[in-house]
Amino acid sequence: MDKYDKKTRSKIMSAIRSQRNKTTERSLRAYLVKYGVRGWKLNLRSVPGKPDFVFLKAKVAVFVDGCFWHGCPRCLRIPESNKEYWDRKLIRNKENDTKVTAALEQNGWKVLRFWEHELQDSPIKVKDKICEALQWRGYPLPDGSQNYDRLHGNNLTCPQK
């Protein structure tokens, strides 16, 4: 039972503004910097969906979707109070994710979506998938050498640390 009436609760909730997913964003940013991946921009408004990381030259958009807000099948726990609202909200979020991905792909973008828990569980795998997409799109290698892979015997665009 809520201690506020419906109108007061609505006013309180409407005043809350998203801070985005700053902790997951910082975590991924730290890994990209650590492994020498350069050339990305954060939350570029000019790109549909305002991806968390945008590689403009390679046309690669990276989203790290929060497990709660985007309805992760592994982690989602819908609140018991106001269940109908949360069901509708999560459906809208998923539909929006699908529309944004489709719009970007129709314009030639490679879209990568990761769950928040994927970044927490295996940040190296997330970094590697980003590097593979960049390499596939012909993005310049972080060390500036087009011979990095041949010299180091791997198929990633990112230096290994």
How would you describe this structure to a colleague?
It is a single chain. This protein has 161 residues and is of the alpha+beta class. It has a single domain (19-152), classed as 3-Layer(aba) Sandwich (Endonuclease, Chain A). 44% of the residues lie in helices and 11% in strands. It has six helices and four strands, in the order H-H-E-E-E-H-E-H-H-H. Strands 1-2-3-4 form a four-stranded mixed β-sheet, sandwiched between helices. Helix 2 packs across helix 5. The protein is elongated and about 55 Å long.
How would you summarize what this structure contains?
This protein has 161 residues and is an alpha+beta fold.
Oligomeric organization of the protein chains: single chain
Tell the overall outline: elongated
CATH A-level architecture: 3-Layer(aba) Sandwich
Q: What is Rg? A: 19 Å
Question: How do the strands of the widest beta sheet line up side by side?
Answer: 1-2-3-4
Number of strands: 4
CATH fold group: Endonuclease, Chain A
Helical amount = 40-55%
State the end-to-end distance.
Answer: 52 Å
Give the structural class: alpha+beta
Mean pLDDT: 83
Low-confidence stretches: 144-157
